[in-house]
Each structure stands twice: as structure tokens, then as C-alpha cells.
Amino acid sequence: MDTWTAIFREMRAVGTFWVLGGLLITALVVRLAAPEDRRRLRAIVLFALLHVALLGPAIGLVDTDASDVARVAALLAAALAGIGMGMTLVFRVLLPRAGYHAPRILQDVVGTGLLVLVVFGLASRLGVHLASLIATSAVVTAVIGLALQDTLGNVIGGLMLQSDRSLEVGDWVKIGDTVGRVVDVRWRYTAIETRNWETLIVPNGQIVKNQVLVLARRHGKPPYWRRLVEFHVDFRFAPTRVIEAVEEAVRQGRIPNVAGDPAPNCVLMGFQESTARYILRYHLTDLAVDDPTDSQVRVRIYFALQRAGITLAIPAQTVFLTQNEGRRAAEVREDEAERRAAIDRIDLFHTLPEPERHHLAAGLRHAPFARGEVMTRQGAEGHWLYLIVRGRVSVRVTVDQMSDEREVNQLGAGDFFGESSLMTGEPRNATVIALSDVDCYRLDRAVFQEVIEQRPDLAEHIAQILAERRVALASVRDDLDHAARCRQIATTQVDLADRIRAFFGLDEA
User: Fold this and answer.
1) Which runs of consecutive H residues, i.e. helices, occur in 34-137?
2) Euclidean distance between CA atoms 166 and 160, whole angstroms
3) What pLDDT score was predicted for residue 268?
4) pLDDT in tens, 390-432
């Protein structure tokens, strides 16, 4: 009975019941309120088991110095377990429930402070008065203070950074000439990872004392970073024409990591000796891919200017050489042959005589597109068709506004699209996206108008071909059988012939 009484008295003296009860409550609360933090209980359980294991030596070695040491060690293990339980309940359960997520460095400082208080208390129990020892050792205190000056400054700086949330993990910052993402804020330093996969270690004290530029942070706005892409165009081209061509290509191009809102915009920044200086401004959604996205934007600008017949500026000091007349003539003949071949491949124009086909070929406009650009969009207006010379495109349709686009066909060199809009003026019935860099020609309504006015009978022939293509596209969406397709082709052909004549004013003529 005396043994059990001694054990009970010792357990009460060193707080064993408090440790075990607190451990049970903490485990239950964490399991219910913060199950993702259950792994943090392992250290607490370890200290609790160490505390219980030290009870044996503390009781068995009664009235000896070793007994006192074992008792103090048991108290230290109990204190560590208690600090762990308190820190878990406060910083992992209570404060997050209140909407405050304490920074890691604050948790570390609080835990270390509590540990220092426990060590002082246990040292006093053993008869070692650390406070008086430090107070009476002025020289030692001064040396320690000077040695820890920078360290304390960094620790305090880290606390300030996270307490006022001026810097958070995940922020993109610029310090000096270095741009990177904050990956960790520790006691002494802040780690910044650059785009080159380098990690810059910056002491917290230095960050507090100097200016730091936090990128892409606006109150109440998404973390977008505005980028500026500069290009130069010959000043003889009208600025309104340049701006319209560039903005249309970039806004409708679905460039990855380019925000749609706010929309990209092009501005004229000034005139130089022989060029006009423009800047395309857009907002980057992923700060890790700044240069690759700038490159994609420049590609879109280049192709947009090419389609509009606008050339990038050449420096004024460039030396121009007169091209050999024979070589120039060969290039003209090659271009004419390519245009004529593109017209000859279109079955819409097979019945046209030689002069009319030559006229159409001469009226073609060069229209290149970059990979990923939207060449036409379903529902948009556009009174022209495209003839593909090189590259491949994807034809996609949307059944209704709630469904996603579905690819119904792919077109390549020798194919054409957009004939319905050219012939009837109706909105585009499909979206076409360039799968690679695409080189093609564009035939506008004004050029074809001159031909069909001379050959009104073309309306019937064109209506038949358009009807077959349209019903083939509709059958993919509506799953039509052969008989239904034939009936729909006949009905559609009559309707299209009337619309073609009306669109080009043939009935009036």
C-alpha cells in the first residue's frame, strides 16, 4: 500500500495526471477539428511516454541525487508535452477557427519562449539561479548581446514581416535586380526562388530595412502582372490600323497565361527617326512564365501585322540593295502560280472560265496565322473565305451555349473554309483554330462580287456545293441518316441559291 501511495503522490507531484488528461483531450479535439494535423501528436505522445518512463527511476531512487535528476527530467518531459499540446490547440485549432492563421515563425518564437521559461524554472528547482548568474556577469551579457545583435534583428524582422503580412509565402517579389517567389520565411532569413531554379537567401533584417517590390498584388484584384511588349512599325502606316489589327489578334487568340479581363490593349508611345513605337500591354496570370508568354504575344503581333499588310520597321541606317530583276520576276511568277493553284483546288470555281479564275487569283490576300490562333469563330461575321496553302486547322462546333466545343473535322493544304459567309453573308457556323503555323490566302466579297455579277448562273452551282457541305456538318451534330441528308440537301440548296442572289444583288440586276 505504501508503494502505491508513493507512486500516486509522485505522479501528482510531477503532473502525470495533467499530462495524460491533456493528451487525451488534445487527441480528441485534433481528431474532430483538425484531422490533417494528427501527425503533430507524435512528438507530444513521445514526450508523454518519456515522462511516464522517468517515473520509475524517480520513485525507485528515493532520497538520492539521482532521484532528483530523474524527477526534474520527468518534469521537463511533462513541460514539453504540455507546451506541444497548448501550441497545437491554440495555433492549429482555435486561431484558425477564428480566421487567423499564425505564421510559422511566430509559433516557433512562442514555443521557444515557453521552453526558456520552463528551463529557468527547473534550473531554479535544482538550485541553479540562471537569472542572477546572467545579471551579475555584465561582461558576458554584453558579449552575448553584441554577438546576437544581427540574429535578434533578423528574428524580429521575420516576426514583423509575417505579423503584418507584408510578405507571404507564394508572393512574387523583386529585391534589387532579383525577381523570384517567396518559398519560406524562417527565423533568420527569407528564401526566394528565382525562375532559374536558384534560391536567394535574404536576411530578414535586410528586407525590413530596404525597399521590396511585391509583384502582382492589388487590393481586391486577382494576382495579375502587367507586361509591356514593344514593337516598331513604319510611321507611314496609320496608327488606328496598327492598333486595331494587333488588339484583335491578341484578344481573340486565346494565348495561354494572358488574362482576358482586363483585356490587352495597344498604345502608340511616340515617333522616332523612321518608325512609330508601339507597346502591347497585357496582364500575365502566371508570373513564372513571363518570357515565354511575351514570346507568344510577339508571335501573334507578327502574324497580325502580316495579315494586315503592315511590315515591322527597318532601322533608318539599313542599306537597301537593288534586287536582280530576273530574281524578282521569278518570285512574282512563283507567287502567281501559287495563287492560281489555290483557286484551281476549290470546287466552287471549277466551272469558271480562265479570265474569271485569273481575276480571283489576283485578288487574293496573304493571311498567315500562328499556331493556336482563332482564325474564325462560330457566330462571328466575316464576308470572306480562307484557302489553306500550308499547315493544318481544327474545325469545331458548339451545339449550345452550355456545351463545350467539339472537333468535327481537320483541314490541311488544299482545303478551304468560310465559303458560306462569303456567299451569303451569314455568321460563321464553326470555329476554326490553327493547329500549326498556317499559311493561307483570303478571298474577300468585293473580289468575288465582280465575278458573280458577270456569271449569275454560278449561284445554283455554288448553292449545291454549299448545301452538301452544310448538311455534312449538321449530320455530325444531329446524327442524320442517308435519306434525311438527301432531303435536307435539296431543301437547303434552294434556300441558299435565293440567299446568294439576294446577298450579291443579282435579283435586282
Assistant:
1) 41-53, 55-60, 65-89, 95-97, 104-125, 130-136
2) 8
3) 93
4) 999 999 888 766 667 888 889 998 888 888 788 888 888 888 9
CB atoms within 10 A of CB 348: 21
Strand-pairing partners, residue 173, are 180, 214
Distance CA 389, CA 371 (A): 15
- Kindly state the helix (H) or strand (E) to which residue 434 belongs, with its residue range: strand 431-434
3-state helix, strand, coil in the chain (%, to 5): 55, 20, 30
> What phi-psi label fits residue 15: left (phi over 0), alpha (psi between -120 and 50 degrees) or beta?
left
Q: In the chain, where are the structural domains located?
A: 2-136, 165-215, 225-307, 327-503
DSSP bridge pairs for 395: 409, 432
165-215 and 327-503, same CATH topology: no
Q: What is the DSSP letter of 35?
A: G
More confident residue, 212 or 232: 232
Question: Which set of grid coordinates corresponds to residue 59?
Answer: 520513485
Q: Backbone phi, then psi, for 188, in 5-degree steps? A: -100, -30
State how far the alpha carbon of 38 is from the alpha carbons of 29, 79, 104, in Å: 10, 20, 17
- Scored b (16 or more CB within 10 A) or e, 423-436 reads bbbeebbbbbbbbe
pTM passes above 0.70: no
What b/e readout covers 382-404, taking b as 16+ CB neighbours within 10 angstroms?
Answer: bbbbbbbbebbbbbbbeeeeeee
Using DSSP, state whether 339 is helix, strand or coil: helix
CATH topology of domain 327-503: Jelly Rolls (2.60.120)
Report d(CA 72, CA 14) in Å as an integer: 9
Q: Report CA-CA distances (Å) from 193 to 198, 294, 409.
A: 6, 21, 44
Closest CA to 114 of 87, 150, 145, 136: 87
DSSP state of 194: E
CATH number of 165-215: 2.30.30.60
225-307 has which CATH code? 3.30.300.330
Closest CA to 297 of 231, 209, 363: 231
pLDDT score for 144: 46
Q: Mean pLDDT, to the nearest integer, of 39-67?
A: 67
C-alpha cell at 438: 498556317
Which residues have a Cβ under 8 Å from the Cβ of 383 and sit 6 or more positions away? 421, 422, 425, 444, 445
3-state class (DSSP) for residue 370: coil
Phi/psi at 430 (nearest 5 deg)? -160, 160
Signed CA dihedral, 74, 80, 81, 86: sign only = positive
